[in-house]
Structure formats: C-alpha cells, structure tokens
Amino acid sequence: MRKFVIVTLLWCAAVHSQTVLSLDDAMSIAMQNSPQIQQAELNLERSSQSLKAQRAALKSNFSLSVNPYSYSYDRRYDRFRNIWYSSENTSSSADFRIRQPILWTDGTFSIINRLQWLEGWSEAGSAQTEPWSNNLYLTYEQPIFTYNRTKLALGELELDLENTTINYVLQKLALEYDVTNSFYEIYRNQLGYDIAREEYANTNNSYQIIKNKVDAGIAAREELYQAELNLLNSQSSVQNNLVLLQNSLDSFKKLIGVPIPDSIDIVGDVAHTVVDIDLAAAIDSGLKHRLELRQREIEIQSAYNGLVETMALNEFRGNISLTYGIQGVNETFESMYDSPDRNRQASISFEIPLYDWGERRARIKASEASIESRKLSQEEARDDIVISIRQAHRQLQNLVNQIEIAGQNVENADLTYQINLERYKNGDLTSMDLNLYQIQLSDAKKQLTDSIINYKLALLNLKILSMYDFVRDQAVIPEELLSE
C-alpha cells in the first residue's frame, strides 16, 4: 500500500512539471515536426522546383564555347594526284549561341555567331592567306505532323505540382484527425485514471468502514476479506490506467514530433455542443470541394497525355529547317565584312514508318482502356463520397442520442451509488454489492466521455469528408490551394 501511494504521489508531482499542451498547441507542433508532413513538404518542393526549372528552360538560353588553341600536323594521301603530303594547321575559335524555344509551336529559334582564326600550310597547296572568318546566322527548327512535346511536358509538370499540393493538403487533414484522435485518447485515459483513483478512494473509505465494524465485532470477518480484495482490485485498476495513460502520451509525442523523453500533459475541453448539420449542403460541398475528385481528374488528364505520346509511336512526322547567315573572311579582323557572303539553307525531312506489326495500335488500345478505367474510378469516387457523408451524418445523429442517454445514466448511477453507500454504512449491504454499484458509476462516466469524444471526432470526420466546417459554418479551402 505504501509503495502504491508513493508511485501515485510521484506521478502527480511529475504532472505539475510537465509542459501542458492544448489541442491547438499540439496541432501547431505536429504541422511543423510531423515526419509525414515533412515528407509531403519535400515532395511539394521537388514538384515546385521541377516546374520552375521547366519554365526557366523556355526562356532564352545563352552559351559561349571557346577553343583558344588547336594545333595539328597530319600526313595525308591525295587520291586525285596520287601523292602523300603534309599539312599543318593552327586555329582558335569561339561560338556564341542564343537559343529560344517556342512554346506554342514546339520550334526552336537560334542565333549563332562563330568567330575563327586559322593559319596553316600544306605541301599540296599554298599557305592560308585569309586567317580571319566570322559567320553570323539565324536558324529555325520546326517539327511538323506531330504533337507539341514542349507544351505537353510543361502541362505534365503543372499537373504534378497540383497533385503534390493536393497530397500535402490531404496529409494535413489526415494529421489533424490523427492528432485530435490521439489527443482525446489521452484525455480518455486521463479520465479513466482519475476515475480509477476516485474509485480507489471510495473503496478505501468502504474498507475503513468495514474494518471498524469488524474491530467492533458488529460485522463478520468475511466482509473484511472481501473489502481487502476490492481494495486490491481498485489499486490494480489505478496502476493499469496509469500505464495506459503513459503509453498514450508516448504515442502522442511520436505523432506530433516531440522528443519521447520530454514530459508533456494536455488540457482540453469536452463540453458537448450539438451542431446542426444540413445533409444536402454537406453532400454538395463534398462533391464540389473534395480534393480526391480533382486527383481523379488529374489522373484522367495524365492518361490522355500518355495517349498522345503513345499515338506518336512509329508516327509519320517531319521537320523543317531554315538557316540564313552572313559570313565574312579576310586577312585582318577589322575587314572581315568588307565583302560578306550571304548563306541560305532550307530543308524538309520526313520519317515514314512502314510496318510495326500492330505495336502502335495495341499500345493505343491499352492507353484508351486505362483512360476508361480512370473515368470509372472517378464515378465510383463520387458515389463513395456521397455514401461516406450520409453515413457520417447518421453516426452524428446516433451519437447525439447516445450522449443524452449516457448523461442520464451518470445521474442515475450516481444517485444509486449514494443511496447504497448509506445502506452499506448501516450494514444493510455487503462490500461486494457496493463495489458493483461503484463499478456501474465508473462505467457510466466513461461511457459519457466516450460518447462526447466520439461525437467530436465524428464531427471532424464529417468536416474532412465534406470539406465544410459546420462549427464555423464555412467551406474548408486550404491556403495552399488559394495561393495557386
């Protein structure tokens, strides 16, 4: 008995030195420290930076390549004159390029300037007399008879960012429910521990009463044995509830990202307030704002993009290339463009598939089947949303009735216990019978608390299912989606 009292006093002293957290405090900590949220944030950063890089790639790209020195000495064979000859060349060159992708046509426009100095001689001919040359030209490459790969790649990254943002929001909503559930689990265990201690105090009081009666010779010793057994069982119940409370605190600390050795306690309010729920409004909000439906739409759009890429397999396609430039060659750098040459080039090419043994057709059919499958999943998701909201609404209505019944049970159990406690003091009731009434009162209090907590969790679940906060009477639109 002394050891049990010491353990209980130490626990109570530790509680007073703990950090006390409200539900809002715990939620704020979890949103910053939760491993799931951190992982979702990293995925969001990856998608955001990938899209940023793709958009940057659509801007003008400037590059400079320099070859400051190149030397070669070769022995070659001239087939026309059937002789071997030697040649020596020394050169320096630099290429400056401006490359501009065209998003709407998938073409590429480039400006290239190539400056070169070349000096050499050959046994087969005279030495180089005009070492300086500069070639400035414009070029445009345009694919034809095919899809716009640049625009499709950009669209895919935009869909990926939106999908990652939705996953991040869904993770936050799921964490909100998990933290709330774990928070109230601690509250439930804390209440169970308090009730067990109250029950222990009542049982100890009953034990002292029967002990005094046995010592006075007005009660049988068997009553004292039963009272001792009840007291031991009550003591065991206190210890069991303390273990449950400590375990739930450890799980809660892991969930919100608090170091396990840290000491925390919670403070919460389980006051019951009935919230009016409009079922039709809840269903309408769910079908309008549920993020999972948008995810299904993204999956369908991605499947269509995949179909476009599949249809390009072994396709008939072409390419148009246009080049126009001015080239100057002279002995001195300043005089290169005294008599420039105008260079022009135009070409068109085609890739013509002949026979692929039905590969392209089969892959297209597979992609089309995937699209239809995703469309069916979207319709099924809409039905699931309606069903889940209707079920949550029924559960809330049922819990309102359960709370009223549980509250009445607590009042009745308390009155019953007080009446039978007087009977026990008068010797009209055994300690075993009184213990049954004590257990009945404890169970009634637990059931009332469980019903209220279940109602709050069910209300939060309906908020997540319908994306509508009926407590504040406003739609739930996360800031991450508003900022897009």
How does this model look, in words?
- The chain is of the alpha+beta class and 484 residues long.
- The protein has two domains: 2-50 and 153-303 and 366-482, Outer membrane efflux proteins (OEP) (Up-down Bundle); 62-102 and 107-146 and 316-352, no CATH class.
- Helices cover 60% and strands 21% of the residues.
- The chain has helices at 2-16, 23-33, 35-57, 149-216, 221-256, 279-289, 291-311, 359-425, 431-466, 479-482, and strands at 19-21, 61-78, 83-102, 107-122, 132-144, 264-266, 317-330, 341-351, 468-469, 474-475.
- The strands form three sheets. A six-stranded antiparallel β-sheet has the order 2-3-4-5-7-8, with no helix packed on it. It has a two-stranded parallel ribbon with strand order 1-6. A two-stranded antiparallel ribbon has the order 9-10.
- Mean pLDDT is 86; it is low at 1-16.
β content, as a range? 15-25%
User: At CATH's second level, what is the architecture of the largest domain?
Assistant: Up-down Bundle
Contiguous uncertain segments of 5+ residues: 1-16
Main pleated sheet: 6 strands, antiparallel
Name of the CATH superfamily of the largest domain: Outer membrane efflux proteins (OEP)
Query: Structural class given helices, strands, pairing?
Result: alpha+beta
Helix and strand sequence? HEHHEEEEHHEHHEEHHEEH
In what order do the strands lie side by side in the largest sheet? Answer: 2-3-4-5-7-8
Number of domains: 2
